[in-house]
Design goal:
Blueprint: H1 11-19, H2 25-43, E1 46-49, H3 51-66, E2 78-82, H4 109-116, E3 120-125, H5 158-165, E4 171-175, H6 182-188, E5 191-194, E6 215-219, H7 222-232, E7 262-266, H8 267-270, H9 277-292, E8 296-300, H10 308-323, H11 325-330, H12 337-348, H13 351-374, E9 377-381, H14 399-405, H15 410-419, E10 423-430, E11 436-443, H16 448-460
Parallel strand pairs: 2-3, 2-4, 7-8, 7-9
Antiparallel strand pairs: 1-3, 4-6, 5-6, 5-10, 9-11, 10-11
Helix pairs in contact: 2-3, 5-6, 10-12, 10-13, 10-15, 13-15
Length: 471
């Protein structure tokens, strides 16, 4: 096939072509490395491009495959990784000028797993500083949304969303503490899953909140997401919070359909007055589509869900201020202004407020688990709004804006990082302005397979994943 068209096929299709030797890993890698400089000047999705290493990895993969040593669907696959994840011998900045010369001497476990799977690393992706939300200044360039360059591609895995959507990598890794995989997936029209907490190792990943950080894929299709997660999931002795439970064959569930599955609609988040009407309409249509496909749809209530963002924020800000204690004391002025506000807020947060948030978290988690006893998955919007305009200045302008920060769109992703359950965002249509909207599907702990099953059934019944951004 024409090499220039390789970036526009899915990772799953590319894997099949590589396996059959119809496309070589070298051709695929060259195709992406040629496209990146043509497009990324508009997006700033990459911080570091590892072209020389990528070509070395691709040649090695090609030799292995020709020699009959095919390792699986990630073998020879050109990927990119959020710059929060350690890569041995490669600059890892965390999106911060504070780490502008940090080169790890080891790989994160997820990188080791990808190396073992034969993946080809194209480079490291841009992000909000230290994965702490809406940075204003980005020392390596402000990331832009491929669907509208005036808009945010999502935080904090901004580059992962932008690069994957713009066909600058076959699939990518992000990290999600309070929505940083699902938000970019929603804003950029992609499939992104935050796996169950403990499904994927965090060893070698710059952390924010030890009890909520989780690495996961951002991809263009459900099957792309499934093969990426399969490559990185599993128990890791280096991360004591990973669970020693089997990793299923995620691809096996993708063609089962949804007939007879019970889907619970979290009405409080669909009908909430703060939801953009276009988002509400598209999500309602997506849920109806699942019903037409044979799913049994019912309404469920999660009483504490409206407070989920405030609960998550109180825990995360407290945790992250502890992680950055030395930075607050000695280098505060070097952080982005918005991040300074978060760090200082966490540093002065009363212990009783943090403890109350922890207790409320357990109550909310139980409410979600109780609901999942009655249904197979829960659904609601990923975000209350489509991609927002890039802000013109830093800081929080008003009390109302601060309260929105404690609620608003963050109360859509926060419930499931608090509950430690898997949650996926899939594109469910576009606004009249051409902006993607995400449907969020959440499941029982370690039941990513059913989440993928529902997402795949919806994807196969629609054509949203075939659309290309205008960039």
């Amino acid at each position: 096939m024409d090499k220039s068209q390789i970036p526009f096929i899915s990772a799953t299709e590319l894997a099949a072509l590589i396996k059959s030797k119809a496309v070589s890993p070298v051709e695929a890698t060259e195709a992406y490395l040629e496209r990146i400089p043509q497009v990324d000047g508009k997006l700033n999705s990459y911080i570091t491009i590892t072209g020389e290493r990528a070509m070395d990895d691709a040649r090695k993969a090609e030799q292995e495959i020709v020699g009959g040593n095919y390792r699986g669907p990630m073998h020879g696959m050109p990927i990119a990784i959020k710059d929060q994840v350690y890569t041995k011998g490669i600059l890892t900045t965390g999106g911060s000028r504070i780490l502008n010369d940090f080169i790890p001497d080891e790989d994160a476990t997820v990188v080791t797993k990808l190396n073992d799977a034969g993946a080809v690393l194209l480079g490291k992706l841009n992000m909000s500083e230290f994965a702490m939300g809406d940075s204003f200044e980005h020392p390596y360039g402000r990331p832009h949304n491929p669907w509208d360059l005036a808009r945010n591609p999502g935080t904090s895995s901004s580059g992962s969303g932008a690069a994957t959507s713009a066909f600058l990598c076959a699939t990518s890794l992000g990290e999600d503490t309070g929505g940083s995989i699902r938000g970019p997936a929603s804003f950029c029209g992609l499939v992104g899953i935050r796996p169950s907490w403990g499904r994927v190792s965090r060893h070698g990943v710059l952390g924010a909140s030890w009890s909520m950080d989780q690495v996961g894929p951002i991809s263009r299709t459900v099957s792309d997401c499934a093969i990426t997660l399969a490559a990185i999931a599993g128990h890791d002795p280096k991360d004591g919070q990973t669970w020693d439970v089997p990793v299923p064959d995620y691809l096996a569930s993708l063609n089962k359909g949804v007939r007879g599955l019970k889907i619970g609609v979290i009405t409080e988040r669909v009908e909430y007055e703060g939801v953009d009407p276009q988002v509400r309409d598209l999500v309602v249509k997506a849920i109806a589509q699942l019903g037409d496909l044979g799913a049994v749809v019912s309404e469920v209530e999660i009483p504490l869900i409206a407070q989920s963002a405030a609960i998550s924020t109180a825990i995360t800000y407290g945790d992250v201020s502890g992680v950055h204690r030395e930075g607050i004391d000695q280098r505060l002025h070097e952080y982005d202004y918005n991040i300074q506000l978060r760090l200082l807020t966490g540093a002065i947060l009363p212990a009783q407020a943090h403890q109350k948030a922890v207790r409320l978290r357990h109550m909310l988690r139980q409410q979600i688990l109780d609901a999942l006893e009655k249904v197979d998955v829960l659904v609601m919007p990923t975000s209350s709004i489509p991609a927002s305009l890039i802000p013109e200045k830093a800081g929080v302008e008003s009390k109302e804006a601060f309260l929105e920060m404690l609620g608003g769109r963050r109360s859509y992703t926060a419930p499931f990082n608090l509950a430690s359950t898997p949650a996926l965002s899939i594109n469910c249509g576009f606004t009249v302005e051409g902006l993607p909207v995400g449907l969020q599907i959440a499941g029982k702990p370690f039941d990513e397979s059913t989440v993928f099953q529902v997402a795949a059934a919806y994807e196969q019944a629609t054509d949203w994943s075939s659309r290309r951004p205008p960039v």
